[in-house]
Amino acid sequence: MIKRIFDTDIKLSESYYGCKIRSLLNAYGTGYDFCKLYTNVEGGTILTYNSTLIADGNFDESELDGFIEMLCPVTVEVPAHIHLALNDEYVRTERSLFKAPKGLSCSEEIDVKHNAFIADCFPIISEAFGIAGFDEWYVDISHKIRHGISDIFLYKTTTITKAFDINGSVFLSHIATASADRGQGNAARLIKWLCEKYEKECKEVYLYSKEERYTFYQSLGFEKILTDTVYEIMNR
């Protein structure tokens, strides 16, 4: 049985899923309707955050299917060992988790803006990922920055978000360059700069990528760790 809880003192895995849930609980707790926490008897944990559902741990898969279809989130993120049978609204997309190599560094001085010009990052992210709604995005990223959960970096017209940093594992997201400036190596420079920064802090860097970008990250020396599936309703 899946039930809602309000106590954030729960055991989560060290995986991306457990870390993401923990970071969102650290940012928002369970007192908001847009951030709800659930558990089940198998030891699984679910967080619904805006239109995304994230699961961590073990589940009766048929029960989880029913729960997801009842809530109908736009995006569903579950570990690779969970196999869902959702309705045809959901499109399955494979993605892989990559880990940065040791010793990756930027060989030149670059001017990186850290948590500055935040609004300038949105058009780049919106163009690359189809994110609409500036106000919602801005309130969310600003809140996470204030609470030490996230950071946003801007180099020329390339931006990268540190989604969260849990137990020495840094997860990067929304890596994007304005379309007019792609192919100039700016994303590679900023990724290398960040990897060098976090290695000096004794942290490991991870990111998720869809298949069309695998070659790019592998060319930088990133190692593919695992492949799993994200489920999305594409036309809502």
Structure write-up:
The protein is of the alpha+beta class. The chain is built from six helices and twelve strands. It has a twelve-stranded mixed sheet with strand order 1-2-3-4-5-12-6-11-10-9-8-7, with helices on both faces. 30% of the residues lie in helices and 31% in strands.
Features:
236 residues, 12-stranded mixed β-sheet, 6 helices, single chain, 12 strands, 2 domains
Q: What strand order characterises the main sheet?
A: 1-2-3-4-5-12-6-11-10-9-8-7
Radius of gyration from the alpha-carbon trace, in angstroms: 18 Å
Q: What class, by secondary structure content?
A: alpha+beta
Task: Summarize the helix and strand pattern as letters.
Answer: EHEEEHEEEHHEEEHEHE
**Can you tell me the CATH architecture of the largest domain?**
3-Layer(aba) Sandwich
Query: In this structure, how is the largest beta sheet organized?
Result: 12 strands, mixed
Point out poorly predicted stretches: none
- Please report the first level of CATH classification, the CATH class of the largest domain: Alpha Beta
Number of helices: 6
Query: Could you estimate the helical fraction of the residues in percent?
Result: 25-40%
Mean pLDDT: 96
Shape: globular
Q: Could you tell me the strand content as a percent range?
A: 25-35%
Task: Count the domains.
Answer: 2
TL;DR of this structure?
This protein has helices at 16-28, 61-71, 118-129, 134-146, 186-200, 214-219; strands spanning 3-5, 35-39, 45-49, 52-56, 75-77, 90-99, 113-114, 151-155, 158-166, 169-177, 204-210, 223-233. It is an alpha+beta fold and 236 residues long.
